[in-house]
Amino acid sequence: MSNEYLDNLNDAQKKAVTAPAGPLLVQAGPGTGKTRVLTCRIAHQSGCSEGGRVLAITFTNKAASEIAERVKSLASDAVGAGRVQVATFHGWALGFLKEFYGDKVREVAGEADARSILAGVLKDAGIRANARHIQSAISRAKEHYPVRVPEEDAELERYLDLYSAALEHYGMWDFDDLIIEAARLLEQPDIAQAFRSGISAVLVDEFQDVSPAQYALLRLMTTPTGNVTVIGDFNQAIYGFRGASPEFIKKFRQDYKNVVEVTLDRAYRCPQIFLDAARRVVGEAMAPALVSEKGRGSEIIFKAHKNPGDEARWIAIEIEKNVGGLSFDSMNAGRAGGDEMRSLGDVAVLFRTRRIGDLVAQALFEEGIPFQVSAMPDPLEQPELQNIYRLWEAVKGRAADFHLSRLPGPRKFWVSRGNLLKSAAARLSPAELLKEMAKMLEIDPELPEIAGLADALEKNPQVESLSLLMRNEVEIIRSRTEAVSLLSLHASKGLEFPIVFIAGCDEGIIPWKGSSLDEETRLFYVGLTRASERLYLTYPRKRPVNGTVKSRKPSRFIKRIPDELRKTPDTAKRRVRRPMKRLQKSLFG
């Protein structure tokens, strides 16, 4: 295999890629070429190994698909020979369990189905309790391996037992169970030995996002001196609510022997101003100084508004300016133009709460600006996607009775339709089968969510479980579409856009009152480092709070950004509102 890819790496990247086999920790700040290093390291390791597979673990199917494609371009022989596998933690665990259990492997229940099953057993047991709250408590216990239930919480122990028995009855595991069951298997010395003998290298992307159970699983997959590479950024650890902790970066140094550390210090996405602002927000002692290859860049635009509605409308108008205007109205109002025109797909609006995103969506709709939304943590909460998922699982023969009984209409109708689809499945691609199911369910197959899921199926043919593919809505949001992306700050991680707006930058929203201040700081750091050209921070001077309009102050994080790194634009004359345009079509529901 040719090593020409090494010629395109800077010194730190090359050091990380060519480090000798053994424990390796790569600290990769935003835009420092993390994915390039990871893919080149995978290719390099596959060329150094004889026979053993290289296993790379990442956190989204979207990332796994992208990394697999890049590795294929660098090491096609290794990929073709099956010596490279790229998967999510949950996807790998399910495949591992299938290898062991064969036909007896269970189906993966989505979060909505798992909650429905839990609610059912609570009701049958005469327990009046909030299933959503109990599900969260159970998931927190199962974020650890072994499962950790507080000794004094006998009720939770009972709920867990009832829930586990119900899942077993239906032949299902939830997402947490995949990690736990894989770890249980690897605790058996003979199984662990067989697994390790077939793996020459393990690499873990986004290591700051691992949960205690995932870290325990990694320890069982590898030895303290094994060939394991972890790559991540302490300051991008934002999933504490899922049990993730950046502390595992420190623990890796303790648990593995003779760890080699490499810090990537050159950034290729953000201009220097954005990097310096982000570093000042988290504290200079907490983040390495990164040097941008893009120069100083433009100052961050900071704008206060009268109220959230004005804020949302200003964002919509500013987007029109950036993309060159979308109508004759824009040109007549003097809003078209700019130094460099961008497409709508180059723009993202980030926010901390769904309510702020809804206001921006409404403003974009009124301006006739197409957009797509990705803010929900579980796409299976959406009825259309939920019904497609149920029909898909039934056709695939997984817990068919469970799913058919939950589809709208008589069960007999869906049994007959399911048989038709089973016959069609042999001649249709997964994406084509999905669209046939949508038509059968009287759902428009061109809806953004359905089209995005079809795209995801085409890019991830190895992920047959739709519950795994749809675990996060950002997995199925369509890339390269001509629409503005509306994203929660959490969903924006791992993405980048030339133009980024962060709306609702007022104290109490950012940081969110009651949340971990450290994690909220890192979340804002993530938001600041999504932009490659222009960055806007906005907030309202007044906001309705619990039915009362209250004055607001800019976020404490804004105050940490030096004046020389940000500017306030001149306030334009207030324009006359014009009638709503009807260009948005199906992107707004």
Topology (SSEs and partners):
Elements: H1 11-18, E1 24-28, H2 34-48, E2 53-58, H3 61-74, H4 76-80, E3 84-88, H5 89-101, E4 107-108, H6 111-124, H7 131-142, H8 154-170, E5 172-173, H9 175-186, H10 189-197, E6 199-204, H11 212-221, E7 228-232, H12 247-255, E8 260-264, E9 266-267, H13 272-282, E10 291-292, E11 300-305, H14 308-322, H15 328-332, E12 347-351, H16 354-366, E13 371-374, H17 383-395, H18 400-404, H19 411-425, H20 430-440, H21 448-459, H22 466-469, E14 484-488, E15 497-502, H23 517-528, E16 531-540, E17 542-545, E18 548-551, H24 556-559, E19 566-567
Parallel strand pairs: 1-7, 1-8, 2-3, 2-6, 4-5, 6-7, 9-10, 11-16, 11-19, 12-14, 12-15, 13-14, 15-16
Antiparallel strand pairs: 17-18
Helix pairs in contact: 1-2, 2-3, 5-9, 6-7, 6-8, 9-11, 13-23, 14-16, 19-20, 20-21
- The outline comes out as globular
Q: Assign the structural class, choosing from mainly alpha, mainly beta, alpha/beta, alpha+beta, or little secondary structure.
A: alpha/beta
CATH superfamily of the largest domain: P-loop containing nucleotide triphosphate hydrolases
What percentage of the residues does DSSP assign to strands (E)? 5-15%
CATH topology of the largest domain: Rossmann fold
- In DSSP terms (H or I, runs of 4 or more residues), the helix count works out at 24
Low-confidence stretches: 327-339, 573-589
Number of domains: 4
Q: Quick one: CATH class of the largest domain?
A: Alpha Beta
Helix content: 40-55%
Largest sheet: 7 strands, parallel
User: What does the average pLDDT come to?
Assistant: 90
CATH architecture of the largest domain: 3-Layer(aba) Sandwich
The Rg value, from CA coordinates, equals 25 Å
Terminal Cα separation, in Å?
51 Å
Spatial order of the strands in the main sheet? Answer: 13-14-12-15-16-11-19
Q: What's the count of strands? A: 19
